[in-house]
Amino acid sequence: MAVRLSKTRIMSALQCHKRVHLEINRPELVHHSKATQAAFKMGHEVGDIAIQFYEGKHDGNAGTYIEYNGGNFSRALKQTETLMTSMFRAPVFEATLRHDHVLVREDVLLPTRDESGNSWHIVEVKASTKAKPEHINDCAVQAWVHMGSGYPLSRISLAHINNQFIYQGDGVYDGILVEVELTQEVFGLLPTVPLWVESARRAAAGPEPDIPVGPHCYSPYECAFINYCWPCDSRYPVSGLKGSKKKLAEWVKAGYRDIRDVPVSEISNEKQLRIHRVTTSGRAELLAGASEFVNELPYPRFYLDFETVSFAIPIWTGTRPYQALPFQWSCHVERAPEEMEHAEFLDLTGEPPMRALAEQMIRDLESHQAPNGPVLMYTGYERTVINGLIAMFPDLAEALTAITERLVDLHPVTLANYYHPDMLGSWSIKAVLPTIAPDMDYATLEGISEGTEASSAYLEAIHPDIGAARKDQLTLELLKYCKHDTEAMVRLVHFFEQSSK
Ligand code: SF4
After folding, report:
1. pLDDT tens for residues 215-259?
2. Any idea which fold 284-501 has?
3. CA 206 to CA 198: how far, in whole Å?
4. What is the spatial order of strands in the sheet that 325-336 belongs to?
5. C-beta of 19 in contact with ligand 1 (< 6 A)
6. CATH of 5-15+23-203, one of 3.30.200, 3.90.320, 3.30.70, 3.40.50
7. Is the CB of 213 under 6 A from ligand 1?
8. Ligand 1 pocket member 21 (CB < 6 A)
9. Domain parsing of the chain, residue ranges
10. What is the pLDDT of residues 366-423, one digit of tens each?
11. Which of 159, 299, 452, 480 is deepest in the core (most CB within 10 A)?
12. Counting atoms of ligand 1 from 1, which one is nearest the CA of 224?
């Protein structure tokens, strides 16, 4: 019997035959990054809003959502068939169809008419902010199954998020989705779909395909088997040289597993040469520029870090999809050597936190008084967030702009002057910290240890159904995590200072 496939599996096969083989035969190897998991969640939120958006848009007839609770799809297939052959024509959400053992779930199916009579319009809903080439393939598989199941199809479009949409409140989301017509491109691909299906089947049923790693592991989607396929069994895996995925894949193919295996003659990129040199030497490199820079910083020094959340579907009036909205900050204040204070802000009420956050930051960063010293950050993210606050609250613009004028980024200084072999090609604060302050490694934090976890914790904490004990726990974890971030910067500056003594 032919291998059963879904649209998702065919899309995996278009990315890499080994991927579809592993998904079906070695599912225990799947590892989704935190970012991918967050993207899945956003996708579900957008799907929910699409139902609200298209509900009743067809002659006012309410649509039907086809439930699927795991297990087999027979009930969903039967219910879809009943609705699609009914005289009472209305939108169907998650219409479930199967053709030639390929199963699809159509996000939105709208009844329509063309010259030959009743027909259908498929709308595929994506959480992205534009239509991408891979979406056309995705729609082509749906159209092929739809028509192969014996149903007419007159249109197929993609609905994606309009990132210029500004939520005006009251649950009104008209205009948040933009529809792009893909009918012509999709119909042009229909003869190719059976070939995709056949090759996906061969890859699934045969032995594990011998496919080398390459740029395709990250495009169009980050593959869930990267940890399995890319070699990571040496102390300094080749992927730590960073840069072009194509070049890294060539080195892996040549049999190099460790950065130190790669002959220096094969490296031309300056940054890779540096990583290779330091890794091969086994000793960290710290240049005088680091201490020269930090020794010039006057007191008081403010070390600032934000945590933000973004919603595909905005929940607060006046905000846009995917806008980074701060709900927390931490600030260590170093008045003089060894004279440290700490200030922080966290709002878990579920109300928009941005205004109160900005006002307290203006006070605690002493924006209105002098001397008010540099505000240290790591990468330019804090500047972006403050600029977002300026756009939101013009009456606070002067005080907030004064803070942006004090911002000093520690990232470029670190990048230019410091590298340790254990950083594996990354200058993120999480990569740098264990090499200068092993006692502060993020891996030792219990609960929240990265930014995506902080946003997830925030969303959980503001949910109306959360229990008091869990909320208290999340509050503590969030405060600890953000404080850890600013303390990390303090330790970095002190490390650079000590290096000149
Ligand atoms: S990591 Fe790369 S080679 Fe491995 S299955 Fe995924 S796409 Fe294919």
Report:
1. 999 999 999 999 999 988 899 999 999 999 999 999 999 999 999
2. Nucleotidyltransferase; domain 5 (3.30.420)
3. 12
4. 339-346, 325-336, 301-309, 375-377, 407-409
5. yes
6. 3.90.320
7. yes
8. no
9. 5-15+23-203, 230-283, 284-501
10. 877 766 899 999 999 999 999 999 999 999 999 999 999 999 999 999 999 999 999 9
11. 159
12. 6
pTM of the model: 0.90
Distance CA 318, CA 329 (A): 21
Residue 60 has pLDDT above 70, yes or no: no
Interval between CA 15 and ligand 1 midpoint (Å): 8
Residue nearest to atom 2 of ligand 1 (CA): 217
Angle between helices 468-498 and 288-295 (to 10 degrees): 110
Which atom from ligand 1 is nearest to the alpha carbon of 230?
1
| Ligand 1 atom showing the smallest separation from residue 223 Cα | 6
- For the stretch 96-134, pLDDT in tens is 999 999 999 999 999 998 888 899 999 999 999 999 999
Query: Would you say how long the chain is, in residues?
Result: 501
Instruction: Count CB atoms within 10 A of the CB of residue 377.
Output: 23
Nearest CA to ligand 1 atom 7: 217
Q: What distance in Å separates the CA atoms of residue 494 and residue 176, rounded to the nearest whole number?
A: 47
Indicate which residue's Cα is closest to atom 5 of ligand 1.
19
Compute, in angstroms, the gap from residue 217 CA to the centroid of ligand 1: 5
- No. of helices (H) and no. of strands (E), the chain: 18, 14
